Each structure stands twice: as structure tokens, then as C-alpha cells.
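Minutes, project check-in
Item: structure for the 172-residue chain
Input as provided by the requester:
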Amino acid sequence: MRGGSRRRTRPDESAKPSHITAEGYRRLEEEAHRLWNVERPKIAKAVQVAAAEGDRSENAEYLYSKRKLGEIDRRLRFLGKRLDVLTIVSEPPPADGRVYFGSWVTLEDEEGDVTTYRLVGPDETDAGAGLISIDSPVAKALLKRQEGDEVEVRRPRGTTLYKLVRVANTPP
């Protein structure tokens, strides 16, 4: 399928308003800047060089570069739309021991494993870096809770019980 007949597998949520931390917004801006000023010119040059080599229908380098250029352009369009509708939350959360957007939380699970997360907007989620979406089941269960609370989180693998060990409004 090509062009307009292609159906999306997910709804387009690029214009859906959301919150983001100042750091997350800066990372998206830096990505857009890098794509526009470094990656796109490099790939556009590769397309130009590959096109000069002759028959484009059998030129793998040309086809690859065109596809890569399309991916970059799609990402730039998406970032442009997202950056326009995101609300930057630059104020730190209150230091009252409760969990809010932007809080760092330290949890202990039933096996005694301790993990620290920061609750962020969906555009900056990175589980490997400990950034979890405010829309995730864990974050939803933690909001407005306070240090010492036990929190039951329903996940696809079943229910998990956590103890909220620490809440901070600055990195641990």
C-alpha cells in the first residue's frame, strides 16, 4: 500500500496536548535541531550522490537514502507538531512528601528490590533511564501518595505491591 491508501496502525496523537519537563522539552528541541542541521543535510547529500550514479530503480544506496530522508522528515514533522502543543512544567513539585508530576520516587517491591523513577510526560519516557510516563499504571497508582505508603499496582503480569520509600523533587 502506498500514499493516501495506507492506514495507520495507531491514531495520530501528535496534536494531543500533554505536559513535559523542561529537560524533556530541551531534549526534543535538540533532537529536532540535530535532525534538521546534521542528519538531514548529510542524507540529502547522499541521495544526490546516489542519484547521479544512474538507474535509480536498481540503486540500493539511492533507495536507502530516500527512505532514510523520508523517516527524518516524518520525525521532524512530528516533533514540530509536538513542540507546539506541549506544556512545559518548569516548577519543581512541592516538597511535601507527596508524589506529583516531575517527582523522583524510590520504590521497594515485595522481593526487597529498590528502584527509583521520575514521573514525566509521555514524550520523554525512557524506562532504562528511570523516566516513566505519568500515564503508566505505576505512576497513576503513585500520584498523591506519600512516603511510607504501600501502593498496589495492577499490571498485565499481575498485581505488585510497592512501598514508597522516598519522594524527592530533585534528583537523588
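Outcome recorded: The chain has two domains: 10-89, 104-168.
No further action items on this chain.
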